[in-house]
């Protein structure tokens, strides 16, 4: 079997494993949010927004500063993504065959030079190299766009969170809907920030693909292993049910239904955030 066939086998399997893991994570976030970091953070962000809006005159500065910190984080990632995109674009237009030991373009008989990349298994053609650079470029551009959307929602939330909703309406339902909308806006900003960070994560296996399909395949599963411990909670102290035997009750409830879990980002009666 030729070496280039390794790209056709290992690279799709590595990408498929990454996509399958994130689809499984999405299913867990939707159905069992209290088992995931994303779900727990969404619930606590909603509670934080409600607490900030209860006393907007006292907590207004704190809320805006907290959102500004999130805007700065998203701005940093967006700036990094567009800078790396520009770098990859330059490499794509000037690489040629030199990265795989093809020598200089101006020589009639180029002298092959041995490099780490030139000795890897897999496709070593100029088209293959361009495809690898293009894949990384797509990840960085996607990270840039997602972080820009995150900045957009955080900017909206920084204004909405100081709205004196209690003075505008005496209806409790209207007040709750206003707080829910602001909390949903903050959560959307956080979701886009998380997606932008995932785009950076996806670029790591694609970067290792430059050195061959085997490093890319191994990096994909190593990254999945690391993300599993970063995405899921292993303690019953983040969000619990009003009962002393929290973990036991949650496990028993899961056998019958998913009522023990909170709807993502929404507070539920009978639950508290610890």
UniProtKB/TrEMBL annotation:
Stated name of the protein: DUF599 domain-containing protein
Superkingdom classification of source: Eukaryota
The organism of origin for this protein: Stylosanthes scabra
Bilayer-spanning residue ranges: 6-26, 71-92, 129-148, 206-230
InterPro entries reported for this sequence: DUF599
Key words, A-Z: Membrane, Transmembrane, Transmembrane helix
């Amino acid at each position: 079997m030729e070496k280039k066939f390794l790209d056709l086998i290992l690279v799709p399997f590595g990408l498929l494993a990454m996509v399958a893991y994130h689809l499984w994570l999405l299913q867990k976030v939707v159905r069992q949010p209290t088992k995931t970091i994303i779900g727990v953070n969404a619930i606590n962000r909603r509670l934080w927004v409600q607490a900030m809006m209860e006393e907007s005159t006292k907590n207004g500065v704190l809320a805006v500063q907290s959102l500004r910190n999130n805007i700065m984080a998203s701005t940093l990632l967006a700036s990094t993504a567009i800078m790396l995109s520009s770098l990859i674009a330059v490499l794509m237009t000037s690489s040629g065959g030199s990265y795989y030991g093809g020598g200089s373009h101006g020589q009639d008989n180029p002298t092959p030079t041995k490099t780490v990349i030139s000795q890897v298994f897999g496709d070593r053609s100029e088209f293959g190299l361009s495809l690898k650079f293009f894949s990384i470029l797509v990840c960085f551009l996607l990270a840039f766009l997602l972080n820009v959307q995150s900045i957009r929602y955080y900017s909206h939330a920084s204004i909405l969170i100081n709205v004196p909703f209690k003075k505008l309406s005496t209806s409790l339902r209207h007040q709750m809907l206003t707080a829910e909308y602001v909390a949903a806006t903050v959560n959307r900003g956080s979701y886009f920030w998380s997606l932008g960070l995932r785009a950076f994560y996806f670029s790591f296996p694609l970067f290792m693909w430059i050195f061959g399909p085997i490093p890319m395949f191994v990096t994909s599963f190593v990254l999945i292993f690391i993300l599993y411990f970063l995405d899921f909670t292993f303690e019953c102290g983040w969000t619990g049910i009003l009962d002393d035997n929290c973990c036991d009750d949650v496990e028993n409830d899961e056998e019958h239904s998913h009522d023990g879990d909170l709807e993502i980002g929404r507070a539920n009666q009978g639950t508290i955030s610890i």
